Amino acid sequence: MKTFDDVLQATGSFDWYQWRTYFFMCIATFLGCPLTFTQVFTGGTGEFWCESSKFQTGECLDSYKTSTECERLGQLASCMSYNFTFDEDEKQLQEYVKTMPCEEGWVFDHSVYRNTFTEEWELVCDKSAVTNVLQSVYLSGFLVGCTLLAFMSDRFGRYPTLVVCGAMTCLSTLASAASPHPIVFGALRFCVAAFSYGLSLTSFVISTEMATPSMRVYVGTFLWILFAIGYFVLAALGKYLNSWRLFILLTAAPFIPMILAIVYVDESPRWLLSKERYKDADKIIQKIARTNRKPLPLNYLTNLEESKDVAAKGGNMLDVLRNPVLRLYLLNLLYNWFVQSFVYYGLSLSTSSLGVDVFIAFCISGAVEIPSCIFGAFTMVKFGRKISTGGLMIFGGLACFATIFAPLGPVRVTFAMLGKFAITASFSNIYVHTAEIFPTPMRVFGIGTCSVAARVGGIIAPLILVFEKLWASLPLIMFASSSILAGLLVFFLPETKGKLMPDTIEDSLNLKTIPR
Questions:
Q1: Beta bridge partners of 93
Q2: CA–CA separation, 504 vs 8, rounded Å?
Q3: Using an 8 Å Cβ cutoff, are 311 and 398 in contact?
Q4: What is the DSSP letter of 466?
């Protein structure tokens, strides 16, 4: 009984206690999807045109023009209108080719988007980039979640981080629904992103730390299946709600009962052991055995204290950087996480440009993620982490290239969703693979550091989509080429299939050479 994995196996590999804790982690992950992609619907832009009151006073009809002609004159352009003057003497409307900006605002079509902040704050024409910037601001909030909050999780514990992040996610989301201005909205959405990502990251780590090697892949993968189910909930809210503010309020509401129920979750015993808090760990391990109705092994805690498998003292990310092998692993993972997020969010946020109904495209995008996560888990178990993740990323890149040449409509959707399928599967894989490479004392911070690169990719993705105006194929070319390169680099990482989670830096180094 030398490792915590041995203790887990003896007290119930994944029994009632683990399922109860895992249930709350699943809820936290599920709620992350509506928060992340809410702007697809709350900030969507349908058809719009310049408001022109002069054509609503009867003057146009008085000039002997038909109602159809008057409607055409009032809706000639989205961002510029023709400059007309009315000749009172000749009772004629004088038309000029010269254009002028929309001085009276805009009229919005509600056949697709019923009510959005884009319409309320008139973020169109010369302000249209603000919507993309707001999405990038949200994704930049993930940087705080995967650095400061990841550090908090490793330094002060998984449980307090879970409570703080859950409460602050709820409060900042509720506040964002009352935003009076885009700047205030952007600042609050930044906070939502930071705390929600801290919540999701900590939930993932707690889930994997309480699972044995045989269950780890399934535990990590099912979390992302639940994230994908959130797509359907989000699409339904977007289609039937008439207010973007109510939309956001409803995404915050489920956090309230979740926070109240968090009392049923305990601190991670694996983290407590890594901090040499043996008495606290013993209480929780006894609770696990009692809940699962399993006997505790004799002298298990003494064996853990004496075992070298308990985490090394003073381990931190600087130790990783000092070691040339681990440094290369880290750089490889940083680039892979960057590309995963870059391509994932790029494809997810561009569903409205596929030539089909935006709600259908969004549901398809989410539906693709469910079998992709299952397929990713299957390939990880069957072929190992490297072949699965690397192969999927290469395939995803090739699918993105094919999308460039596909016509708008079902064919283009098919290729784009194949790319989304592959990148989603590889994204869920890389979480598990990374958690199995970093040792316990720096696991959350290690995943968090890699997440920084991923968040940079996520921040850049909405901005890259703006380049469609210069060259429609440029974003897909960037997604495809970066995905193929990242897939090739995965094969330089250690294979971790069937190996125990490393508790020390030495364990991480041994992944390459010693099967466990």
A1: 86
A2: 18
A3: no
A4: G
Share of the chain above pLDDT 70, in %: 83
Burial group, residue 516, by CB count within 10 angstroms (0-12, 13-18, 19+): middle
Burial per residue of 319-348, b for 16 or more beta-carbon CB atoms within 10 angstroms, e otherwise: bbeeeeebeebbebbbbbbbbbbbbbbbbb
Cα Rg of the chain, angstroms: 27
Question: pLDDT (tens digit, 9 = 90+) per residue, 488-500?
Answer: 999 999 988 878 7
Please name every residue paired with 92 in a beta bridge, in sequence order, or none if there are none.
87
pTM of the model: 0.74
Task: Please tell me the distance from the alpha carbon of residue 498 to that of residue 131, in angstroms, as a whole number.
Answer: 45
211-249 in b/e form (b: 16+ CB < 10 A) is bbbebbbbbbbbbbbbbbbbbebbbebbbebeebbebbb
- Residue pair 511/446 in contact (Cβ under 8 Å)? The answer is no
DSSP codes, 205-220: HHHHHTS-HHHHHHHH
pLDDT, tens digit (0-9, with 9 covering 90-100), for 177-218: 999 999 999 999 999 999 998 898 889 889 888 888 778 888
Burial of 302 (0-12, 13-18, 19+ CB in 10 A): exposed
Cα gap 338→478, rounded to integer Å = 13
Distance of CA 105 to the CA centre of its chain: 35
DSSP structure class, residue 222 = H
Q: Which helix or strand (DSSP H or E) is residue 347 part of?
A: helix 324-348
Q: Give helix 148-156 / helix 182-209 axis angle, nearest 10°.
A: 40
Tokens of 70: 């008057």
pLDDT tens readout for residues 358-371: 777 778 777 878 88
For 78-106, b/e burial (b = at least 16 CB within 10 A) is beebbebeeeeeeeebeeeeeeeebeeee
Q: Give me 214's structure tokens.
A: 């045989």
φ and ψ at 221, to 5 degrees?
-70, -40
Q: Tell me the per-residue pLDDT of 251-294, one tens digit each, with 9 for 90 and over.
A: 999 888 888 888 888 999 988 888 888 889 889 989 998 998 88
Give the three-state DSSP class for 86: strand
31 contacts 25 by C-beta, under 8 angstroms: no
Pairwise CA distance, residues 205 & 505, whole Å? 18
Distance (Å, whole) CA 122 – CA 510: 58
Q: What number of other Cβ atoms are within 10 A of residue 316's Cβ?
A: 12
Integer angstrom CA distances of residue 243 from 42, 234, 251: 8, 14, 13
**29, 137, 485 from 122: Cα distances, Å:** 33, 19, 40
**Cα angle, residue 326 at apex, residues 320 and 329 outer, rounded to 5°:** 125
User: Rounded to the nearest 5 degrees, what angle is found at the Cα of 450, between the Cα atoms of 444 and 453?
Assistant: 145
Q: What angle do CA 189, 194, 195 make, to 5 degrees?
A: 100
